[in-house]
Amino acid sequence: MKRIYVNEKWCLGCHLCEYYCAFANSGEKDMVKALKGVQINPRIQVEEKDGISFAVSCRHCEEPLCVKGCITGALHLVDGVIEIDKEKCVGCYTCILTCPYGCVMPSDEGVIQKCELCLNNAGGKPACVEHCPNKAIVFEER
Amino acid sequence: MSIDFIYPEYEVVRNQSRCIACRVCERQCANEVHWYDEDAGVMMADESKCVNCHRCVAFCPTRALKIVKSDDTYKVNSNWTGDVISDVIRQAGTGGVLLSSMGTPKNYPVYFDKILLNASQVTNPPIDPLREPMETKVYLGKRPTEIRRDENGDLVNTMPPHLELSVPILFSAMSYGSISYNAHESLARAAQELGIYYNTGEGGLHEDFYKYGANTIVQVASGRFGVHKDYLEAGAAVEIKMGQGAKPGIGGHLPGAKIVGDVSRTRMIPEGSDAISPAPHHDIYSIEDLRQLVYSLKEATEYKKPVIVKIAAVHNVAAIASGIARSGADIIAIDGFRGGTGAAPSRIRDNVGIPIELALASVDERLRQEGIRDEVSIIVGGSIRSSADIVKAIALGADAVYIATSALVALGCHLCRSCNQGKCNWGIATQRPELVKRLNPEIGYKRLVNLVTAWGHEIKEIMGGMGINSIEALKGNRLMLRGIGLTEKELEVLGIKHAGE
Amino acid sequence: MRYVIIGNSAAAIGCVEGIRQVDQEGPITIISREKYHTYSRPLISYLLAGKTDGERMKYRADDFYEKNGCEVMLGRTAVAIDSLAKTVLLDNGERVPFDRLLCATGSKPFVPAMEGLESVPVKHTFLSLDDAKALDQDLTEESRVMILGAGLIGLKCAEGIAKKVKSVTVVDLAEQILPSILDTAAAAMVQKHIERQGIRFILGTSAKCFTPSRAELKNGSAVDFDVLVLAVGVRPEVELLKNAGADIERGVQVDSHCMTSLPDIYAAGDCTQSYDITSGTERVLALLPNAYRQGEVCGLNMAGLETSYDKAIPMNAIGFFGLHMLTAGSYVGEEYVVQSDSAYKKLVTRQGVLKGYILVGDVARAGIYTALIRDETPLDTIDYELIKEKPQLIAFSKGKRDRVLGGA
């Protein structure tokens, strides 16, 4: 299946992926309206140091520790994509405890959030990939 | 405040109601124009550092930015213009030669824009390139002059070495050092995919790019940087660089700061040493001397590769070209005064040389008159901006064109003319690793392929309109051209009639 | 292949999902003492607090059993296992035959003998949905609740009922709260936070004797209450297997394939003990993620796909009144501690690997730490200084990053 891969060789550390992620998941049609004056809490995060940078988002593991450890059954694997049922989630953070890549994070609504490949927002395809200016984030079959 | 004060040329206009303070402008600007003020919670800018490269404008996700030319002026004066006054102030402050990059921005006539193309109506039908075959392939090199047969009466192959191009376009010389590794990779891969050639420039050939040798022209310039046996053998042709349109009569100087790592290795000079290309080749003071170098290179490459001699378009270019054609060179490349550069003295760039259109017309005419036009192919460069310029150049007598500025624009260059500062925000004219990585060759080479492919389509479209179905039939076909708003003398040099004639 | 599973919680569900990865055909029978569709046990406190409900508590969707070909016997208790005849005897006298059996009986509340306890009319344990429902019945806005035990269960209970009752007093023999997961400093910080929500702690003492609505404590004080919650601890529920002849220590002993000492009989979850790689000891690791994984490994093995259960570590994610804490591993070793008003971090290393951590307040990306512990990553292969600063992948080698992120 298609996955998100990041190639740090081409990552510029511009952080646009974070902003487009936050925008895509805001439900707003205009980025200014969505993000003006907002401290963004994106599902993709750029790590950077000494000229190295790369974006990290859910790997959609085949053996997902977050799904297996979820105490409520709110996290589940559907056609290779790990999705969160925010209704069921109580925000216990067991997934934050178990995700080896640090890709699950508290959401502003009190439960948790993670990359769902923009399948469940207006985007339909990953906004971080669409807007990466240097193809450092790609969504492809390998 | 210093009396050297020069008001910033550009203003950074930020629409604060659209700015979301994502700081992408700050992160992308190597000139450190933008910064975020934590206390005020807003983005700020120091426009005095702005070179108007548009990196921030292109990256701003909310289109909150624009860069505009400052409307601050000195007291208006048609003779003592703002630029002239500023230059004087700068030089009074530094005592130095002013440097600039890319082609001259001065308002000289652009002859391509004063030439119109013909099209067929009624008496000779136009050709639809989507329905009928159309040949854009060209071969560069000497035409065979004799037919020889062996004792059995079979033909002996007397064909001199040629370059085969799918379209009459080559990427012209830009050295590794003046442009980045990723820019070179983009050019090399694009040339391979397109079936054309790129040119190493005078900086040698990076070991990683030997694999693109079949689509590479290796250059030998006055500094002879990076020239060795394998290098000469790696390329499909060898180019002797005698001059460059942007700085005729001037050598080159790549500062030691840029001679690092791979650049140093590729140029075969120590790290940190200045790479100085002398103004002349110290072994060439005559056509006879040039002939010696041409044949040395032919000898070194076993007469399998065409040799190109590249010169700047200067006043007596036709006579010089005639000499080159007689030196044994296979191809003459002529670079017009509007050609680009990574760094050149402003005064030279803006005042020396002649337009490529006039140089081309006079060279083609002269070689024809002397009956040696088939001895050489002619490549012209120096601001070929579109497929229309290419068609006009070919009709004026060129075999193919060199493009560089338009290739760089395809790669992201916004013609800010600051290459000499080494902080190219688009990852092209820089060696700083964090900037070089901004040009992903995977993207870059496709954009180059797109550009040349698009121009190829347009060339076919234009030729079809004229009722011409091959580049060969267009070459030197000046009847397809008409001047507009040109003087008798200009028309005479160009060898074309005025519109309406 | 006939599969029988005793239990209906995380380990049991893990087992079903494990079996079905390998064997889509063999019938599965689930025997559960409780009468409910599989539900998430840790959510009972959230239920009392009104943060979830019966529907959302379901650990798997309504059609789970049907989709996975499970026959479910709810409200049925297994009373004996005949390991030779390979049958499970139920409380109604029925015998259920099996080829492979999973015992996922979980744990039971531990209630120490205390003088006068039998005289207390309103007292509850807090482990099951029925416990929670029963407790809820007895709570009013005027209730004074005394909780015996300041561990995970006691405090989750306190949080769940805090807004519904007049007062909550938590008593524990230990000098600190949450002694199984926190050190003293972190415990003090969390305690302060919980106290700000109006919950009272009496620590370092225990009940001497009870009258119907009053506890006399050993330190001489007394607590008056209307409702008593007993949350002193839990013990593995091992009776069935013990009687069947399986080896039992602290919990049921299983091999690396999660099989008990009895052939074809497996055990998983809170009733078992497993090897904790951080302390190097066999321990009861009563944690839902471990239970699920162990159950899944059982299922895979029961269906014939040989799989090992290893890399078990203690770990916990819990939060009280919005203050979250994530912990893992053991805390014996060299410590690195950072504390502020709102956050606490302790990393423990031993023999060049990360062995444990405590994070309170700022818990972002803690799983990176957990993975370092689980994988026993030698710290000299990463930039530990960066890891100390915060969990981040840039601390790993480029090769590792390329594999994980770049698909190399």
From TrEMBL, chain A:
Gene3D superfamilies found in the cross-reference section: 3.30.70.20
InterPro entries reported for this sequence: 4Fe4S_Fe-S-bd, 4Fe4S_Fe_S_CS, ET_IronSulfur_Cluster-Binding
Pfam families named in the record: Fer4_11
One Gene Ontology term of the molecular function aspect: 4 iron, 4 sulfur cluster binding
PROSITE patterns cross-referenced by the UniProt entry: 4FE4S_FER_1 (PS00198), 4FE4S_FER_2 (PS51379)
Domain 4Fe-4S ferredoxin-type: 2-30, 80-109
Keywords: 4Fe-4S, Electron transport, Iron, Iron-sulfur, Metal-binding, Repeat, Transport
SUPFAM superfamilies linked to this entry: 4Fe-4S ferredoxins
Lineage: superkingdom: Bacteria
Chain coiled-coil ranges: none
Keyword Lyase: no
UniProt name for this protein: 4Fe-4S dicluster domain-containing protein
TrEMBL record, chain B:
GO biological process: glutamate biosynthetic process
InterPro entries: 4Fe4S_Fe-S-bd, 4Fe4S_Fe_S_CS, Aldolase_TIM, GltB, GltB_archl_type, Glu_synthdom
Catalytic reaction list: 2 L-glutamate + NADP(+) = L-glutamine + 2-oxoglutarate + NADPH + H(+)
Chain residues that bind [4Fe-4S] cluster 2: 29, 50, 53, 56
SUPFAM superfamilies, A to Z: 4Fe-4S ferredoxins (SSF54862), FMN-linked oxidoreductases (SSF51395)
Enzyme Commission no: 1.4.1.13
Residues of the 4Fe-4S ferredoxin-type domain: 10-39, 41-70
Record's signal peptide: none
Presence of the UniProt keyword Amino-acid biosynthesis in the record: yes
GO MF, one example: 4 iron, 4 sulfur cluster binding
Keywords: 4Fe-4S, Amino-acid biosynthesis, Glutamate biosynthesis, Iron, Iron-sulfur, Metal-binding, Oxidoreductase
Keyword 4Fe-4S found: yes
Binding site for [4Fe-4S] cluster 1: 19, 22, 25, 60
Origin: domain of life: Bacteria
Family from the record: Belongs to the glutamate synthase family.
The protein's name in its UniProt record: glutamate synthase (NADPH)
TrEMBL record, chain C:
Residue ranges constituting the FAD/NAD(P)-binding domain according to the UniProt record: 2-295
InterPro entries: FAD-bd_OxRdtase (IPR050260), FAD/NAD-bd_sf (IPR036188), FAD/NAD-binding_dom (IPR023753), FAD/NAD-linked_Rdtase_dimer_sf (IPR016156)
Annotated SUPFAM superfamilies: FAD/NAD(P)-binding domain
Keywords noted in UniProt: FAD, Flavoprotein
Protein name: NAD(P)/FAD-dependent oxidoreductase
UniProt organism field: Bianquea renquensis
UniProt GO MF annotations: oxidoreductase activity
A Pfam family assignment: Pyr_redox_2
The keyword Magnesium belongs to this UniProt entry's keyword annotation: no
Cofactor(s) required, per the database record: FAD
